[in-house]
Amino acid sequence: MITLHFSGIEERFLPGLRAFGERYGFVSGEGGLSVSVVKTGEPRLFVRRAGGDVEIGVGKPVHLFRALGLLLEQIGDENYAIAETDRFEHNGLMYDGSQASSLLTVGSCKRFLLTLAAMGLDTFLLYTENTFDLPDEPYWGYMRPRYTEADLREIDDFAFSLGIEVIPCVQTLGHLSEAIKWRPYSEFSDTPSTLLVGDERTYALCEKIVGTMSRVFRSGRIHIGLDEAWGLGRGNYLNANGFRPVFDVMCEHLDRILAITRKYGYTPMMWGDMFVRVCQKNETDYLEGSFFEFPREIREKVPKDVQIVYWDYYNRREYYDKWIPEYKKLCGDRLIFSGCSRNVRTFGSHHTRTFLTSRDALLSCKANGVREVFCTVWGDDHRESSPFAALPGVQLFAEQEYRDDATEEEIARRFDFCTGVGYEAIKGISRFDQIEEINGDNYGVQSPSKTLLWQNILLGLFDAGLGEHRVSEHYRALSRDFKTYEKKYPAYASTFAFYRALADALAIKGDIGVRITAAYRENDRAELKKIAESDLPELEERLETLRRAHQADFYATCKPIGWEILDVRYGGAIAGARTAKTRIEDYLSGKIEGIPELEEPRRLYNGEKGLGSSMDYRRIVSASNL
What we know:
alpha/beta, Double Stranded RNA Binding Domain, TIM Barrel, Four Helix Bundle (Hemerythrin (Met), subunit A), eight-stranded parallel sheet
């Protein structure tokens, strides 16, 4: 533990400095290195050391913590000097705990905030649909993980002491199925996920949401959502008002919401996809390799006091270079770009796609004058992956902030310091989905870690995707690696224990359906007997071990409500192993003449090679409705 004696530090940063020191190994006090902090008045930072004297220059508050991290990283160099320039005005992380049903605890938020500060990222958006308390709304977030107002204030205070702005990120139209399923809100809904435009109860609720955010957060900015409003104007709205063009309905609602944000002094931002969708024949189409120019009537109706967020997690440089200038026609220099670090609908992560698309997007943002960006971490279909699996992509966003470009080697070096864990260890989580002989580098974001674990053993909806390949050895090798990581990185031990248990389970579960089907069709009764007496009981034990390891990691990171969904999924997998054992034993004993499930032809899922991309659990576990 080294001692740093600070001068020129504002009082607001003292709590953050103490926490930062505890995390990164220094204390503030007399003696040790003398650290003088000055303001540069420019979008840049510097560190200059001459023996025991250090000068740090900061252009914005979070620079202090990135600069300290750079100093500590090179603490052995008594003549260390570095200067860095911001490429963006704001850059940060948006974390989804709402769709994920895995809401970070306040302590976990602080852990993330310390990491963001070391990276030099200055914004943090907590994506909340109905996962926060709302006064006098007992069914808002009922029995869901949620933050109290005290929680949110504590997060905001801590971030403020680190120079990070927490921006509330809510929904004011769509994405509210978890609220609308309850009667108070279903009574003024358009569709099962969208509020009813024009109904005064909608705006009373939205004002209560905005007012609550204004009360608990310092930020003068708010993200009001407004994306993916499926069926807008074509449900209860249509019954009450007749047909109106979707864009007209959207504009009417946006005007009402902006009147509320103005009342509370907010500068709002909103997702921009609905402006694209109203130009498409199918509302679910969004930037699927197409390009068009926004019609004049759309460009002219976009309000001038809202920032538009162009979100795009899929494409490459040429595409971004077309769409960024087109999006800027909607809001000029107020445009924000949002990319993604992908660990959604998987136990693993999709590193290749994250790295290639994010790098291209950020280079395009720099070239096309985008001033603000943030990296999203989504949790659709209830997160099964560790939140930490997304951190390499977040570090990429940070290093692109302070360089013209950043190599993976540079990203990895900073990652090791900022997170306290090896880059290759966390990147290794992507190997749960990346199986060379099946999906190469997995640019296509397949998720075998999810499909192979949750698919029914006797139905094998994804078995045809394995072809002639077997994955047992792939997962056995991962188990060995993650056992090493578990011992090497104690701060992440519960996460690596979870992944080691996942690898152990997949080492059996990944292939077992193919083995059972082959043995049955070849009438290899000895192999069926071995599977029923040995492999399936062992699988059941490994699934229970995995459930416990995952639960321990979940409870260490997230609020407890939300785990019940994973209990159901693990319970189904364990019951499926028991059922498969019983069915094989009944067949071998002559109790049943055959196993019809195994006589069904195995076809590629949707006729596509591989092991499933962006799959929801309900589409994995059965071909029937769940």
